[in-house]
Amino acid sequence: MASERFVPLVASVATAALAAILLLAPSDAHGQQIPSSVSADALRVCADPSNMPFSNARGEGFENKIAEIVAGALQVPVRYYFMPQGPGFVRNSLGKRLCDVVIGYAAGADPVLHTNPYYQSVYTLVVKAGGPLDGVERLADPRLKGAKLGLAAGTPPADHLLDLNLLGSAKTYSLLVDRRYESPVEQMVADVASGTLDGALLWGPSAGAVVQASKVPLKMVPLLHEAERPPLAYRITMGVRPTDHQWKQVLNRVLTERAGEINAVLLSYGVPLLDDDDQLITAALPATGGKTP
Fold first, then answer.
1. Nearest in space to 85 (alpha carbons), one of 2, 182, 151
2. Which end of the chain has less Cβ packing within 10 Å, N or C?
3. Which residues pair with 281 in a beta bridge?
4. Model pTM?
5. Which long-range contacts (CB under 8 A, 24 or more apart) does 63-72 make?
6. 222 with 204: CB under 8 angstroms?
7. Are 234 and 7 in contact (CB under 8 A)?
8. What distances in angstroms separate CA 15 from CA 67, 125, 255, one per listed residue?
9. How would you classify the pairing of strands 199-203 and 218-222?
């Protein structure tokens, strides 16, 4: 889904709270039996060729790195079917058996069978470090009255701004764009850096790496204290075909065994990660050498 993946356009990205990954019996790579319904000679991944920081055709996104971790556990190479994410993406890739998994998908979002969530993240407020909004932690903060905030049209923060009478001064950016030519997230972050915006409300995984790369010091504040509806924190899973229950279980085992490596990748891209208690995770789990502890 363009710049914010399968993040809800009203509620289409995911749901909240990083549920504990189901612990299954430990197994090494040779024990990961790939079912006959999927390719046995490669991890075939459905991905967008130009959707950084998630994925690109050069393998530079964090979902590319996570795909490599999963493929390593299965002892197969990664093979991509690239297609711009948008209407028909799942139907024309996963649905046509041109690939076997989508690496990042919102928990509960149709039309896939979901693995267990492998991370939970949250929308954030991006502001200038040391600026007038530095220190704001809630959208109800009086300092946001009259502030010019940027957000992607149709995403959950819009409802919160409307409830707080902050939407009138906000600037909306298109979400569904061709990422080969446009990047709403990069534009919003640049507008905060330049002072065109006072702040931007962005899905954390989309914004983390862009904020890290900014030459102007910025802060990304996870919005952990907002009203529950619509939620601003969401679980992210991998998506497989609705009939591929065995394949789902294989991936669940890998996600459990490689959780530390996956978290390390996400944190290195500036993704704000939440634990089961909605608290920020600041360090990756220790590596387990491919074994479930």
1. 2
2. C
3. 273
4. 0.87
5. 63/103, 63/104, 65/265, 66/103, 66/262, 66/265, 66/266, 67/43, 67/103, 69/258, 69/261, 69/262, 69/265, 70/43, 70/103, 70/251, 70/254, 70/255, 70/258, 71/42, 71/43, 72/29
6. yes
7. yes
8. 22, 19, 19
9. unpaired
